[in-house]
Design a protein that fits this description.
Among the domains are: 27-100, no CATH class; 144-291 and 316-370, GDNF binding domain (Annexin V, domain 1), CATH 1.10.220.110. The protein is built from 22 helices and 4 strands. It has helices at 2-8, 27-35, 38-51, 56-61, 63-72, 76-79, 89-100, 123-133, 137-140, 145-154, 157-171, 182-195, 198-206, 212-219, 224-227, 236-243, 247-260, 275-284, 345-356, 359-370, 410-422, 430-440; strands at residues 289-291, 312-315, 320-322, 332-334.
């Protein structure tokens, strides 16, 4: 042990890996480290003053601002990132943009994601999806996988409670002119996607379909009449610009572009052939909430510490969804159009095509729905997909649900699909009770 210790040499300085590279930290921690060092702290204050009310060229022309920027580029703040769903996510993003809005022109079509990169794959969840989607072609052709996903959610107390909560909130009529509260709907949706494991949420969002009834159920997953559709479609560039005035929405949009932007140098059209990163960033756009008082020109830059937590205000309209109930093609779009774009029409169409004609996003959704993950590294091949043994028990059903203990009984699915499509009257049975329960939910 002593010999090995002596060969290892002295430990790396804090914040560096053994090769001398600076290890990125989250921006909240980087902010604390900077505040503890007088040089960094004073330069950070200087840079904030430089950014206040000035454009980037004016700032860079000032020698004091340049010096502050150079010092900060050697500090943990420069490389800091945020973790998705971290406790102080909004605070972290506020710190990130307080630095990086001064380092860029501010007019880039694509912005780098402030989030830590997703390195793991969805192998386990994809294998789960392949089992759920039905390995037997005979049953696969009859199954409504989106109904399967809803049944699986009902078998999990947390998923059932939060799904029931957002459906109820998004379906509650406020008045004759306002059929729902979009802000409350978005908040409930965000809680669902943040607090429920992705093996449930992804199955609801990305289930594969062979008929229109299934595809319509998939489209209705987020209750689009409240969370998605509106009286008029805004211009897509106006929508993007409004999104960029908010730290959270700007971050989620940048994350989507980083992880879903079509890459023709990869086999899957996804950056790094990473489906998980794309699906996660897509889900991150759903139900985003808007902060209060965050216009780009008048945005008060955060103090070093402590930072106030931003208040959440009205719901943001960047939420994407399926545009129709087609089972054969997948078309995703935010609620916007390029009408009235003028000389910016080409840029607007480019932004819209990143959703509607995005091969990475389409391939990722189809792969998950079919349970076919990609693994391009021969050193770590994906284990073969095998269905669970028949002796494995399904989770116990809640007492208030009258249902079969078989989660994926195709006869039940077929019965429910028949009720939904044809309104057939059936004798009272467990299958019928499940269908009625699902319709009420």
């Amino acid at each position: 042990d002593e010999i090995l210790h002596s060969l290892a040499g002295p430990p790396s300085p804090p914040g560096q890996d053994p090769h001398g590279w600076r290890v990125p930290v989250d921006c909240v921690r980087a902010n604390e480290l900077c505040a503890a060092e007088p040089s960094c702290s004073s330069r950070y204050r200087t840079l904030r003053q430089c950014l206040a009310g000035r454009d980037r060229n004016t700032m860079l022309a000032n020698k004091e601002c340049q010096a502050a920027l150079e010092v900060l580029q050697e500090s943990p703040l420069y490389d800091c990132r945020c973790k998705r769903g971290m406790k102080k996510e909004l605070q972290c993003l506020q710190i990130y943009w307080s630095i990086h809005l001064g380092l860029t022109e501010g007019e880039e079509f694509y912005e780098a994601s402030p989030y830590e990169p997703v390195t793991s794959r969805l192998s386990d969840i994809f294998r789960l999806a392949s089992i759920f989607s039905g390995m037997d072609p005979a049953t696969n052709s009859k199954s409504n996988h989106c109904l399967d996903a809803a049944k699986a959610c009902n078998l999990n107390d947390n998923c059932k409670r939060l799904r029931s909560g957002y459906i109820s909130t998004c379906s509650r009529e406020i008045s004759a002119t306002e059929h729902c509260s979009r802000r409350k709907c978005h908040k409930a949706l965000r809680q669902f996607f943040d607090r429920v494991p992705s093996e449930y949420t992804y199955r609801l969002l990305f289930c594969s379909c062979r008929d229109q009834a299934c595809a319509e159920r998939r489209r209705q997953t987020i209750v689009p009449s409240c969370s998605y559709e509106d009286k008029e479609k805004p211009n897509c560039l106006d929508l993007r610009n409004a999104c960029r005035t908010d730290h959270l929405c700007r971050s989620r949009l940048a994350d989507f572009h980083t992880n879903c932007q079509a890459s023709f140098q990869s086999l899957t059209s996804c950056p790094g052939d990473n489906y998980q990163a794309c699906l996660g960033s897509y889900a991150g756009l759903i139900g985003e909430c808007r902060g209060v008082g965050m216009a780009p020109g008048s945005l008060p830059l955060p103090p070093l510490i402590p930072l106030p937590s931003p208040h959440l205000g009205t719901g943001f309209d960047m939420t994407p969804n399926y545009v129709d109930a087609s089972p054969t093609s997948i078309t995703i779009s935010p609620w916007c159009s390029c009408k009235g774009s003028g000389n910016m029409e080409e840029e607007c169409e480019k932004f819209l095509r990143d959703f509607t004609e995005n091969p990475c996003l389409r391939n990722a959704i189809q792969a998950f729905g079919n349970g076919t993950d990609v693994n391009l590294s021969p050193k770590n091949p994906s284990p073969p997909v095998t269905p669970p043994p028949k002796t494995e028990k399904s989770p116990a059903l809640p007492d208030d649900i009258n249902d079969s203990n078989t989660m994926y009984d195709t006869s039940v699915i077929t019965t429910c699909t028949s009720i939904q499509e044809h309104g057939a009257k059936l004798n009272k049975s467990k299958e019928q009770s499940l269908c009625y329960s699902e319709v009420r939910l």
